[in-house]
């Protein structure tokens, strides 16, 4: 489906103090070791969370804008393996790719969940790995304020959910009400189901993806953050704690290998402190 038939997504005004958190199930399904078998200079890789992450990584609109400027007026391929993240950044990246003057081909090589699924909708041609996943759900925010702020947040979220439901409906041909029910159910779709439901156009050949699809092969920091998110620790506190831990155990951010004894002792002490914080949160 040509992206030119899809709407530009306008960001409505939103209350101050909102934050975003990656959906726990999407984070658990995300394997950062999944990469494309090959790429060229007209390829953009979205292989982490949407928005700036706790360690300064993540996919931001500024990064995508710079990549598109470098590519120029040429067809572009976008490789996605992301659990989602910042909704506003997802909207901005979708609009940038939608406005690109040449063909945009999206390859979902792992998972495109939440905000990443919005970005995927910008494709003229959307292809997904047979073992890949697509996930759609209602917008999820962390808000703080009085009842008036909460009421305003509710109304804003409803506008955003309706906006997304219509986007997915335009892409798939499924009615907006049916899409709304799928979003309510936090629907995960396999590669084949994504094609069957119209979210993707075709499956990727198997040799386009390389992966070590083993939970134990994932970097420790990703597994730890998934556990902390599942336990209910707020995103800001997770970021702070993970920075503390990775400063002592730098290998945890990028290498699942066994740390040194000294790193392990201090890292375990910090993990015990994290455990105590979780108990206090409950």
Describe this protein's structure.
There is one protein chain. The chain has helices at 24-29, 61-71, 87-99, 115-120, 147-172, 176-184, 191-196, 220-230, 235-248, 261-281, and strands spanning 19-20, 35-36, 43-46, 76-82, 104-113, 125-128, 133-136, 141-142, 187-190, 202-203, 209-210. Helix 8 runs antiparallel to helix 9 (235-248). It is α/β, with parallel strands linked by helices. The chain is built from 10 helices and 11 strands. The relative contact order is 0.15. Helix 2 (61-71) links the parallel strand 3 and strand 4 (76-82). It starts with 18 loop residues before the first strand and ends with a helix. It folds into 2 domains: 3-210, 2-enoyl-CoA Hydratase, Chain A, domain 1 (Alpha-Beta Complex), CATH 3.90.226; 219-281, no CATH class. Strands 3, 4, 5, 6, 7, 9 and 10 form a 7-stranded mixed beta sheet that branches. Strands 1-8 form a two-stranded antiparallel sheet. Strands 2-11 form a two-stranded antiparallel ribbon. Mean pLDDT is 80; it is low at 212-218 and 251-258.
Key terms:
globular, 282 residues, 44% helix, 2-enoyl-CoA Hydratase, Chain A, domain 1, 7-stranded mixed β-sheet, 2 domains, 10 helices, alpha/beta
From the 3D structure, determine the CATH topology of the largest domain: 2-enoyl-CoA Hydratase, Chain A, domain 1
String of helices and strands: EHEEHEHEHEEEHHEHEEHHH
Total domain units: 2
Instruction: Identify the CATH architecture of the largest domain.
Output: Alpha-Beta Complex
Number of beta strands: 11
Fraction of residues in β-strands: 15-25%
Low-confidence stretches: 212-218, 251-258
Q: What general outline do the C-alpha atoms trace?
A: globular
CA-CA gap between termini: 47 Å
Summarize the main sheet.
Answer: 7 strands, mixed
Task: Report the radius of gyration as a whole number of Å.
Answer: 19 Å
Helix content: 40-55%
How many helices? The count is: 10
Instruction: Output the structural class.
Output: alpha/beta
CATH homology group of the largest domain: 2-enoyl-CoA Hydratase, Chain A, domain 1
CATH class of the largest domain: Alpha Beta
- Give the overall average pLDDT: 80
